[in-house]
Design brief:
With 141 residues, the chain is of the alpha+beta class. The chain is built from 3 helices and 6 strands; from the N terminus they run αβββαβββα.
């Protein structure tokens, strides 16, 4: 018997701990260099299915900070599908000494966006400048 006097199945049906976690997230990648965009708008060059990519992706979904992450692993998808799937196991205490564990899949949809380095490389001979023109006129406007 646990502190709430309910079996695990009844407790899980009453409390959905994964409801606040986003199940589908958009992830930007650069088509030119293959880098991934971080949450702070910087770009990271990571290997496919690496620990660094897993860490980068797990910072993206909303709601994961409110639960305890137990396990995360990649699920194989076709490379041309432009999807990365993660199998995530989370835990959360729903009542006094009653901890629930839930497993679900988060899908990352990869979309193309040029990084700043590739933008500079593509746009040759361009300038970024700010010009302020002042003119003295007899009338006030």
């Amino acid at each position: 018997p646990n502190a709430v006097f309910m079996c695990t199945n009844c407790l899980q049906s009453e409390h959905d701990i994964g409801a606040g976690v986003a199940k589908q997230v958009q992830q930007n990648t650069c088509r030119g260099c293959g880098r991934f965009e971080r949450r702070d708008a910087s770009w990271a060059e990571v290997e496919p299915e690496s620990k660094e990519l897993l860490a980068l992706l797990l910072r993206k979904p909303r709601g994961l900070a409110s639960v305890r992450l137990v396990d995360a692993s990649f699920i194989w998808t076709e490379p041309h599908s432009r999807r990365i799937k993660l199998k995530v196991t989370i835990q959360k205490e729903v009542a006094a000494a009653a901890v629930l564990q839930q497993e679900f899949i988060i899908t990352f949809v990869l979309s193309n966006k040029q990084c700043t380095t590739c933008q500079r490389r593509e746009a040759k001979d361009t300038w970024v400048a700010l010009v302020q023109v002042r003119q003295k006129v007899p009338h006030k406007r």
